[in-house]
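Sequence only, no structure available. Ideas?
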Amino acid sequence: MLFTRLKSSPAVLSIIAIQIVVYVAQLVSPDIAERLALPGSAEGLGERPWSPLTVIFVHDLLVHVVLMVVMLAAFGPLLEKSARAVDVVAVYLLAGVAGSLGVVAATAAVPTWAEDGTIVGSSAAVFGVTAAVLAMRPSSRIFGGTTTQWLAILVAINIVFLFSLPLGSVGHLVGIAVGWVYGRWLRSRPGPAGGPARA
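Reply:
I predicted one. Tokens follow.
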């Protein structure tokens, strides 16, 4: 079963637990989301410099939390098994923060993309974890599809949404790129946590 693998994946389980706890806290105190969310424009970042990190644990809809938890539960344990727990946390944080900064940079480069409100979600971080798994297993089949097919689906979906939800798509694509690079580095890294033998 999908969630049974979490028993041997403490890093993934911890990230999922934080996501759920933060979402429940938001229901109790909606102000929490406002304080942790990413500003919709570059100017607002000065007021919440911590938000590129904290936003990757915040969600505004239950369905979004569920989707991210399921995706992380599906791909996260594969990364934790192939590499180390610290690598799961590193990919999640690096891809998430890079995605957030990508969004901020996009609002500065294209002012018309700036939003009045805030942006939330862990998609960039979760997509980064997924991309890292795909990069480490270039010739494998995962959940019925090849790694190339899964990567193509992730990228294609976000390119399509680039026209209707540009900021989210930019963040997602940056997260995917960071995760892919990290995964390729893990694959080439010498030792028990890297190298072709673990792919």
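The chain is about 65% helix and 5% strand.
Hope that gets you unstuck.
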